[in-house]
Amino acid sequence: AIVIPNDWRRVLLRVEACDWECSIFIDGDFVGMHRGGYDPFTLDITAKLQQLSVSSGNIRHAELLIRTYDPTDSGCEYVVTPPVPCKSCCRQGWQPRGKQSLQPGFIMYSAATGPWQ
User: Fold this and answer.
1) Which helix (H) or strand (E) holds 47?
2) In the list 4, 16, 55, 92, which could disulfide-bond 117, CB 3.0-4.6 Å?
3) Cis geometry, peptide bond prior to residue 104 (ω within 30 degrees of 0)
4) Per-residue pLDDT reduced to its tens digit, 53-81
5) DSSP 8-state code for residue 55
């Protein structure tokens, strides 16, 4: 849960890093999405928070949910340079992924996803 003072005029949510697809929900409502494991992003959540009722103490309470998804190498063999357009090698589409794999072994390691900064 997050607590926001009612007198805040603008509220920005900043995520420094989240691998790979990051969807943000406030009180169950989708407010934005970003794709990219190493890129910070900022969402202006002011409009959604203004819809919430003000509780005692002149504050607003909300539930913040961050959902992450990372297809890693789902249906995709490891290639340094993907064919362009990438239609046959990946069912999910090609994405930079380092050495993460759903089937770790050799120099590949287990996949991990989620906010990390």
Assistant:
1) helix 46-50
2) 16
3) no
4) 888 788 999 999 999 887 765 655 555 55
5) B
Is residue 3 within 8 Å of 11, Cβ to Cβ?
no
d(CA 33, CA 27): 15
Q: What is the pLDDT of residue 33?
A: 92
pLDDT of 48 > 90? The answer is yes
What is the reported pTM? 0.70
Residue type, 6: N
- The residue written with tokens 């064919």 in the block is 83
Please report the beta strands in 2-116, taking only residues with DSSP state E, as ranges in sequence order: 2-5, 12-15, 18-19, 21-26, 29-35, 41-44, 59-62, 64-69, 100-101, 109-110, 114-115
Asked whether the predicted pLDDT for residue 90 surpasses 90, the reply is no
Place of tokens 């063999």: 77
Burial class (CB in 10 A: 0-12, 13-18, 19+), 48: buried
Judged by DSSP in three states, 108 sits in strand
